[in-house]
Amino acid sequence: MQLSYRGAFYEHIPHTVETVETSLNARFMGVNYRVRRPVNLSPQKPNLTLRYRGIPCIVE
User: Fold this and answer.
1) Which residues are registered as beta bridge partners of 3?
2) Distance between alpha carbon 3 and the CA centroid of its chain, in Å?
3) pTM above the 0.70 mark?
4) What are the 10-residue block averages of pLDDT along the chain, 60 residues in total?
């Protein structure tokens, strides 16, 4: 999906997180549900190219 903010166009890339169901039950506003937890918790370094006023910035 192509989006724009103040005239700058960019693509929205949704991120997904794999989850598994646990044995914990929870209730929210009267509705019961099973709690899910993420499968892989290893931090990943984002691949970003940031710009400030048109100048590329390096993120480390």
Assistant:
1) 10
2) 17
3) no
4) 85 84 92 89 72 78
